Amino acid sequence: MSARARPVSRRTAVGGALAAALAGPALAAGCTLDPPTSEPSPGAPAEPEPDADVVLLGTVLGAIDGAAALLAATTDRHPRLAGMLQPLLDAHAAHRGVLDGAAEVEPDVPPAPTVPGRPPLALDRVRRAETRLVGTLREATGAAQSGDLARALASMAASLTQHLTVIGTEGPVA
Amino acid sequence: MSTLEALQSTLAGEHAALHLYGLYGGRTSQSADPGLFEALQDGYRAHRARRDQLRLLVTDLGAEPVAAAAAYDVPDGLRTAAAVARAALDTERACTEAYAALVAQVAGGRRRWATTALIEASVQQLALGGRPEDFPGAPELG
pLDDT, tens digit, for every residue of A48-97? Predict the structure, then answer.
């Protein structure tokens, strides 16, 4: 999926809400680790190449928008699924909100999704779309030049996996 | 923080998590709380596997893996199954944050492995009573 990415500075590319929020992740007892630093260190990933991460963000935003469009269309056609799917829509909005602040990228508008007429099939299509989005986020995590961006993308993949797990344990949809 | 330091810090966290999971399992009745007992067993196995993998990753860098501490701080009030589940969830959240931080500090295959660990720890939270979050391991983004 392509995206129109405007050349932006390093600060803009991985800046805004993402960079501000990444300034101080919480620490907890057990499994503690110092927060990621913006200072380069020996052995750590190299300093980001802004253009590469901006293009990556465009791809991720496009994928999120596509999945969100399917979710919205599904809840429109099958209101009974809305309660189950609304948390996923909220998660997409939260993820987009963070990435919106990180780069001036204009992802392509996703095509209008088609929604199966039977709720179980519609839900299955949502599950498969979300699973593909998790894969996209994981690939982007591996490709990100910025460690901070990678951390945010990995967390988003984990969030969607949590939601998919919960949806998978809920009862069958007639 | 270097790659080696990040791996060693995460390994130290896994040593702590393993110790705590063993403690939680010892305070949980398999017959009275089978669901929690199974979740703790699954968690213990997962943390043990990650500890072993982290040891290998450290050794691959030519360093000596950090050893477990002689003792760890233990949460108070582990007298009920609900209290044990809450403490285990706290431990799992701490590990999720550690792996999210590790993702930022490493690259390539190590980052892919850390991402898998982050996702697995996030899902394990659900078995301990947690709910889906917008940013597991990176709550300040929410």
Answer: 555 789 889 999 999 999 999 999 999 999 999 999 999 999 999 999 99
pLDDT of residue A16: 54
Query: Do residues A62 and A108 make contact, with C-beta atoms less than 8 angstroms apart?
Result: yes
For residues A138 and B112, give the distance between their C-alpha atoms in angstroms, rounded to a whole number: 8
Instruction: Provide CATH code, domain A48-169.
Output: 1.20.1260.10
Is B136 among the domain residues? Answer: no
Residues of A in contact with B96 (CB under 8 A): 31, 158
DSSP B141: G
Look up the CATH number of the domain holding residue B21. Answer: 1.20.1260.10
Its domain, for residue B36, covers 3-131
pLDDT digits (tens, 9 = 90+) for A11-42: 344 445 465 543 333 333 345 434 444 444 55
**What's A46-73 look like in SS3?**
CCCCHHHHHHHHHHHHHHHHHHHHHHHH
DSSP string, A62-117: HHHHHHHHHHHHHHHH-GGGHHHHHHHHHHHHHHHHHHHTT--EEEPPPPPPP--S
Structural domain spans, chain A? 48-169
A29 Cα to chain B: minimum distance (Å): 6
Q: Is residue B140 part of a domain?
A: no
Q: Within a domain: residue B12?
A: yes
Residue B123 and residue B58: Cα distance in Å, rounded? 26
Complex confidence, ipTM: 0.96
Number of domains in chain B: 1
Facing residue for B134 by CB, picked from A44, A95, A141: A95
Return the residue of B nearest to A42 by Cα: B2
